[in-house]
Design goal:
- By secondary structure, the protein is of the alpha/beta class.
- α1 packs parallel to α7, α4 packs across α5 and α6 runs parallel beside α7.
- The two termini are 13 Å apart.
- The N terminus is likely disordered.
């Protein structure tokens, strides 16, 4: 199952599959609060907006894999999954110099075969536990309330760039996290890579070897 870690107090992740109109605004907001996030990007988005990939990387954010063309991975063969991962990884690496090792399945669509194939490629499949629903164009106040009410240690919060009210909601979400004592870190700082098992919910449990 995908990793839903319990090890730190807070985390944020943003997905970049489509538009690009607010990417710099998101970088500026995150920079104001000195927050580093993980952006899961689609290979086709990298093709269209390489300058934004570089800007995100230069600002200190993680750039990770969200597939090459936003396909449903449970409908793909093992070879097709590998090709998707490799293509997106290569595009990101060409710009940032860093090859991703985290993957977020489009649509949250995964099964055991997808997770096993991704792991065999030396990558970790990531899932979220709080969906901001910014993609539904909720009002900023509704996004903030939804996120802050669902927080727990190790939460991975899903946002999207090019969502209507994400830039408006982001400052209040970050301030609410800070007020509750959470530290926002990139996803790679949440997951365990050694000495863990997985429980029935897909969370990593430290102390045992996988």
């Amino acid at each position: 199952m995908p990793y839903k870690p319990l090890q730190h107090k807070g985390c944020r992740t943003l997905t970049s599959p489509w538009g690009n109109e607010d990417t710099q605004q998101l970088i500026d907001i995150l920079g104001k609060y000195n927050v580093k996030a993980t952006f899961f990007v689609v290979g086709e988005w990298v093709d269209k907006f390489p300058e934004s990939v570089k800007a995100l990387h230069d600002a200190g954010h993680e750039i990770m894999n969200h597939s090459d063309d936003h396909a449903y991975f449970t409908k793909l063969s093992t070879d097709q999954i590998k090709a998707q991962l490799d293509s997106c990884n290569s595009k990101i690496e060409a710009i940032t110099g860093v090859r991703p090792d985290l993957f977020r399945p489009p649509y949250g669509d995964y099964n055991d075969s997808v997770v096993s194939t991704v792991r065999n490629c030396g990558m970790y499949t990531i899932q979220w536990n709080i969906d901001s629903l910014d993609w539904k164009d909720l009002e900023a106040s509704a996004i903030t309330e939804r996120v802050l009410k669902r927080l727990e240690p190790g939460s991975i919060i899903l946002f999207h760039n090019a969502a209507k009210n994400t830039p408006a909601a982001l400052p209040s979400v970050i301030e609410g996290l800070i007020q509750q004592g959470y530290t926002m870190v990139p996803v790679s700082q949440l997951i365990l890579r050694d000495n863990y098992t997985m429980d029935h919910t897909g969370r990593q449990v430290p102390g045992s070897s996988s």
